[in-house]
Specification:
Blueprint lengths: L1 E5 L5 H13 L5 E3 L1 H10 L4 E7 L2 E11 L2 E9 L8 H15 L4 E7 L5 H6 L3 E7 L3 E3 L6 E8 L4 E5 L2 E4 L10
Parallel strand pairs: 5-6
Antiparallel strand pairs: 1-3, 2-8, 3-4, 4-5, 6-9, 7-9, 10-11
């Protein structure tokens, strides 16, 4: 069973392992630009950090920041040995629930199209909103990369069993379920 909780300083080592495992394949395609590193430093004090655990071990992590009426997911990662086990889905569901509890309208994510992760986010309930040249990533092979902005719209008065699958909250009368 996957559980999600706020990260603590004691999670630093296991989170580092997850991050190293999660980004190993990404670094074959891109690396963060100076603009990305500067941006991350600028928002560092506003980042919320979550970890996912399975059998007491940290197997996934994400960060998010509240940005106006949305929550932006930053750095969703799952250890390669725990992929396809619902870890990313559990992390995204927790972020979506926190967004809903704050009355926010959506969860937003960005990914580099060339990594193949667009379909992963779509499977988690996100929809592509836009594609544009990526100013936050540098291709390791040369050439241009594409930033894809994805959004998961949240319905008021609903909770999720999992991202992208909404059900009415007890007592709600929403008629626009998907």
């Amino acid at each position: 069973m996957i559980s999600v909780r706020d990260s603590t300083p004691d999670d630093a080592g296991p989170v580092d392992e997850v991050v190293a495992s999660a980004i190993a394949t990404l670094r074959q395609t891109y690396r963060p630009s100076g603009k990305a590193r500067s941006h991350k430093r600028a928002i560092a004090g506003r980042l919320h950090r979550l970890v996912a655990e399975s059998d007491g071990a940290v197997v996934g992590r994400t960060q998010y920041v509240i940005d106006g009426s949305v929550i932006r997911i930053i750095g969703l990662g799952v250890h390669r040995d725990s992929r396809r086990e619902g870890v990313a889905r559990a992390l995204v569901a927790e972020v979506a629930d926190r967004a809903r509890n704050r009355g926010l309208s959506a969860v937003v994510a960005h990914t580099v199209e060339e990594t193949g992760n667009v379909r992963v986010f779509e499977a988690l309930g996100f929809e592509v909103q836009s594609r544009s040249p990526d100013a936050y990533s540098e291709s390791v092979k040369g050439g241009r990369l594409t930033d894809v902005r994805l959004t998961m719209q949240l319905e008021e008065n609903s909770t999720t069993d999992e991202p992208g699958r909404r059900r009415p909250s007890p007592g709600s009368t929403s008629s626009n379920q998907r």
